[in-house]
Design brief:
Blueprint: H1 7-23, E1 52-57, E2 60-62, E3 71-77, E4 83-88, E5 92-94, E6 102-111, E7 115-117, E8 121-131, H2 137-146, H3 163-166, H4 169-181, H5 195-219, H6 222-236, H7 250-266, H8 273-297, H9 305-321, H10 326-341, H11 357-378, H12 386-398, H13 417-430, H14 434-442, H15 451-454, E9 473-476, E10 481-485, E11 494-499, E12 515-520, E13 523-526, H16 538-544, E14 553-555, E15 571-577, E16 581-587, E17 598-606, E18 610-623, E19 625-631, E20 636-639, E21 642-647, E22 650-658, E23 662-667, E24 684-690, E25 694-705, E26 716-721, E27 724-729, E28 732-737, E29 740-743
Parallel strand pairs: 1-8
Antiparallel strand pairs: 2-5, 3-4, 3-6, 6-7, 6-8, 9-10, 10-11, 11-12, 12-13, 14-19, 15-16, 16-17, 17-18, 18-25, 19-24, 20-21, 21-22, 22-25, 23-24, 26-27, 27-28, 28-29
Length: 744
């Protein structure tokens, strides 16, 4: 027995695998063919998902809208058999009181151009579920209007203007920065021909403006109020129909409106009525198209990256301005409920974020101040909502401390250390948990004076140990992602990530179902390639989003999965985790849009340094199959079946144990290349390409992390057996049979 795989651990792992592979699978959930099943996968999902167990009470109810104008009546039957009904014009509904733990069923009746009723669906409220009752629209508005200013932090025990915060080094650093920038002219209205440049300039002025406004709120020193005032009034006069209009630059216009609203709240006692009127007029002009767009589109189709953040900030602006701006009362009553319903459309109760790790951090950082406002001035504590309180777990597993980059989705290649540190700390202060506390405490390099942190600066984030009992692997069913680490606590860990997602290649997601990523020793090793040089650039469309840019299967010269469609999706059908090994099985037939009749991949991670990947592929048309691999540095070809990958101290030996007859080739060319100055660094792209066409193919690949493909490694070979393969690696024996895996 190899010392790296103790017999006791392997026996425990084998038992765990047998259980996960079906020995005690629950009864399958029913398949429905009713009014809630729509062909358009971008429409609102059905929540709670059928047969789900939820950790909040009551859960929010959402469903895809029916055509035309409808009234929906939701009938809920509880564990005691009693039923209640509620009606709404919207395609979402918040139950008006907490529900006791137990199993519930619900059905929906739609009445409009025609009447129809759904099948019943069930969910279970967990015994330890947290109460999360959303106030009625009228109650939301009353609470907002009655909350004294500043509403942003009213009633918080950790107020950013408390004596403790004002004495802190971070606050002193903010005051020093404000003072240093006082002599400079205010930011001119951005007029560049570049949307990105205009947005970045707007964000830069937002930072300066809000720092000065917060300095005034905390100290009431006139010089800070004067500096904030000149910046606020300048932005209030920027053209609402020009380069920073909502139509021309949605994020830029949103940033200006958000800056003005927060400054209005924080400087309310500085501003004169005429000055307030100018600011409110600018906010009104910028928010109207935001509100019209959000309320028209997001209820039915919430999968809009910019739109979802806009909706959250719009809701918070309504709360901040209620009673002072008539339109804001409408924003509270209409936008706040919708924003709470779609806190994140990119995942559900497990906290996952299927639109990519970079977007997860960017969006969470943008949303946190708005979440603070909703809690403090509207009585909606999103920290009690399943997705929010579990989101920290997602961040910890997919960008653990010491990560060289993110994984999956636009921006995956970026090292966002400052963002990771800032957002993780601000998130932990909003929704604390032992895992979030460990994660935040392990992050370094945050900009301490950004508002996400300043608005929660009353709490200290200190380094703590990883809580005992936290597993080294995790699966997030709502997004179809798995993370498998040699040791989550070790920044020099080996990390294996696998994805087969119901979000497909939509929005910021890529055509990378059944793909994997491996990091080791703080370096990217087997990675998704390319650069986020902009949204819908030639490189983004022609390479970065493509299957051939990832560690996934292509055929016939780089043909892969469909682009920009949720329906081009994957599905993880098996997952097991144990101290000795983890595995996941994904199906990606839908992602290939009918080109393949079988696209099954199983990835097995044997701790600490062995990764096995088995692919089973079929097509009605003979294909020249391709097994892709990418890395930052030059690949060393040992043979057509053996390749060495290196990146600094990280190294990996890849051996194709079983496959069709293949020839290996590698190059460092992007087609088309990324834009940017300076030119982005080269990356290497390898492919084990079948030399002939066949209707079916099997690949079994072995990757040894830390090995340079030298002699002396434990023997490894793959043997075809009835229904699958048996792989022997030293004294470990792995059997693949359909979706199932056995390890001995």
């Amino acid at each position: 027995m190899n010392a790296r795989y103790p017999l006791r651990s392997l026996l425990f792992a084998a038992a765990s695998s047998a259980l996960a592979a079906g020995a005690a699978d629950p009864a399958p959930c029913p398949v429905h063919h009713d009014i809630l099943v729509r062909s358009d996968s971008t429409l609102a999902p059905v929540r709670p998902a059928d047969c789900a167990t939820v950790g909040e009470t009551p859960p929010e109810f959402t469903w895809p809208p029916q055509n035309g104008i409808n009234t929906y009546t939701l009938t809920l039957t509880g564990p005691d058999g009693r039923s209640e009904s509620r009606s709404t014009k919207h395609n979402f509904l918040f139950w008006d009181h907490a529900l006791a733990p137990g199993r519930y069923s619900w059905r929906l009746k739609a009445e409009g151009a025609k009447a129809d009723t759904s099948d019943p669906r069930t969910f279970t409220i967990a015994p330890d579920a947290l109460e999360f009752v959303v106030p009625s629209p009228a109650a939301l508005l009353q609470r907002a209007r009655e909350t004294p200013r500043p509403r942003t932090w009213h009633g918080e025990s950790a107020s950013p203007v408390s004596a403790k915060v004002v004495r802190s080094p971070a606050f002193r650093a903010m005051l020093e920065e404000v003072q240093n920038k006082m002599p400079a002219e205010v930011q001119p209205e951005p007029q560049s021909g570049s949307i990105g440049s205009n947005y970045e300039d707007t964000v830069a002025e937002q930072k300066r403006t809000l720092a000065a406004a917060l300095a005034w709120a905390a100290t009431h020193e006139r010089r800070y109020g004067d500096d904030a005032f000149r910046r606020v009034m300048a932005q209030a006069r920027w053209n609402t129909e020009g380069t920073l209009s909502y139509a021309n630059n949605d994020m830029g216009s949103r940033t200006v409106a958000w800056t003005l609203a927060l400054a209005y709240d924080w400087m309310h006692d500085y501003l004169h009525p005429a000055q307030k009127a100018v600011i409110l007029g600018a906010i009104r002009a910028r928010v109207k198209p935001m509100f019209d767009d959000a309320m028209k589109n997001l209820a039915a189709s919430p999968y809009d990256s910019h739109g979802n953040v806009t909706l959250t900030l719009l809701a918070a602006m309504g709360v901040v301005l209620a009673g002072d701006l008539p339109e804001a009362d409408v924003w509270v009553q209409e936008a706040v409920p919708l924003a709470v319903a779609w806190t994140s459309p990119w995942g559900w109760q497990d906290g996952g974020f299927g639109n990519g790790t970079a977007q997860a951090f960017w969006d969470t950082g943008s949303n946190l101040p708005a979440w603070q406002i909703l809690r403090n001035a509207a009585g909606v504590d999103l920290a009690r909502k399943d997705w929010v309180r579990n989101h920290g777990r997602f961040l910890a597993y997919f960008v653990p401390p010491g990560s060289p980059a993110g994984v999956f989705g636009d921006g995956l290649e970026l090292n966002l250390q400052e963002v990771w540190a800032r957002v993780s700390k601000a998130y932990e202060r909003f929704a604390p948990s032992p895992l979030a506390r460990w994660y935040a405490g392990a992050q370094k390099g945050e900009d301490e004076i950004r508002i996400e942190l300043m608005l929660s600066a009353g709490n200290d984030t200190k380094a703590v140990a990883l809580p005992p009992g936290v597993p080294d692997a995790a699966y997030f069913p709502s997004i179809g992602w798995t993370a498998m680490h040699s040791s989550l606590a070790d920044p020099m860990r080996t990390s294996v990530y696998f994805k087969s997602s119901p979000y497909g290649s939509y929005n910021h997601s890529h055509a990378d179902q059944n793909s994997f990523v491996i990091h080791a020793k703080g370096r990217r090793l087997a990675m998704a390639s390319g650069y986020y040089d902009g949204y819908k650039t030639p490189h983004w469309t022609g390479w970065y989003k493509q299957t051939r840019a990832t560690n996934a299967i292509t055929f016939d010269g780089g043909q892969g999965q469909g682009l920009n469609e949720r329906s081009m999706s994957g599905d993880i059908t098996r997952f097991a985790a144990s101290p000795a090994f983890d595995y996941a099985t994904g199906h990606a037939e839908a992602a290939y849009g009918g080109a393949l009749t079988r696209a099954l991949r199983t990835i097995v991670y044997l701790r600490p340094d062995i990764v096995l990947v088995r692919d089973s592929l079929a097509s009605g048309t003979p294909r020249a199959w391709e097994w892709n691999i990418h890395t930052p540095e030059h690949m060393e070809r040992v043979s057509d079946r053996v390749v060495t990958l290196r990146n600094g101290p990280a190294i990996l030996c890849l051996e194709m144990l079983a496959s069709p007859e293949v020839a290996f080739r590698a190059d460092n060319h992007f087609t088309p290349p990324p834009e940017g100055n300076p030119k982005p660094a080269d990356q290497w792209h390898g492919v084990f390409a079948a030399t002939g066409k066949t209707p079916e193919a099997e690949f079994v690949a072995l990757m040894r992390v830390g090995s340079a493909c030298k002699s002396g490694e434990p023997d490894a070979h793959a043997t075809k057996i009835d229904g699958g393969w048996r792989v022997d690696v030293g004294s470990a024996h792995v059997t693949f049979n359909g979706d199932e895996v056995r390890v001995q």
